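Proteins fold reproducibly. Take a sample protein:
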Amino acid sequence: MIQPENNKGINDLCYRNLIDLLPCYICVLDRELRILFNNHTFKNDFGDGTGRNCHIVYKESENKCSSCPVQKSFEDKKIHISEETVQLSDGNINQMIVYSVPIPDVFGNVKTVMEMSVNINKIKEIQSELVLLGQSVAILSHDIKNILEGLQGGVYVVDEGIKDGDMKLAGKGWKIVKKNITEISNMVQDILYSAKKRKPELQKTLPDEIVREAADLFRERASFMGISLKYEVNPVLPIVNLDPPSIRKMLNNLIGNALDTCKKDKTKKTHFVVVKADFYDKLHFMFEVEDNGAGMDEFVRKNLFKEFFSTKGSGGTGLGLLTVNKIVKEHGGKIEVLSSPGKGSTFRIILRF
């Protein structure tokens, strides 16, 4: 039975509306990778790509993608799948799974290919968090074991001191206990901070107070290590909006690293760490942590803020600087790292007033 022409038109419209409403991106391309058709979802995020090459629409590139699934479908008339990074019309970056499906004509020739793409940003985020958590457990288990052994050793010294009435010995043991409690506390906080998304709770804060508190926290440790630790704050810096707990954590990580790199450096007789707060320009202020320790080469500088990258070998997890970078980004700031081997390092955190 032949379908009436008006019913066919209604059906075509229904199919078109159905394709437009699908929550994935759909387009049809020819052999030159020109877009012949794109659905409403595609147009919302990429604009009307009709007549344009897909690689220009997706990546603003004149070059075809090296792993283009559409080209493969034209070549072998099969379905292909790839994972691509694309840029939306608003500038945001999306991770997508791309399916290319050949559309044969009545003679079996493939003159067009349909491409279906699905946004997998959320899946990637969850995957990254799970990987981070798994790696954290694997990498930190050994360090936590060492800290717990240190705690047990400190407790033993305290017990012996109390048993013998030797308070000096008990005090020595208690220092060991406190040191290991602080280490495991900082480690756990870094794991939680780096693995969790949060929005800074901004408060009106004096940079002077933040810097002074951070420096004072490490005063005893620096003295024990024979390292000069001081702070310098421009007295006319105004009150600024910050999340004090996270900024303290940021400075604590940077100061701790600075002390460690000074300890590592055996080429100088004296070492120093200076914590600063000052104007950067008319619109920005900055925190700085400067040291004259071992310094870093270009490779280390480029990899500093990658997950689990550490210059401390088995003695470090890399989570500290990952946390620092996360805090700075949450505050809308940026980090400058000035360093060279043997000359020391300066970490400069630039934030807007």
User: Anything to note?
Assistant: Residues 121-163 form the longest helix (43 residues). The first strand starts at residue 25 and ends at 29. The chain has three domains: 5-119, 142-197, 198-353. The two ends are 75 Å apart (CA to CA).
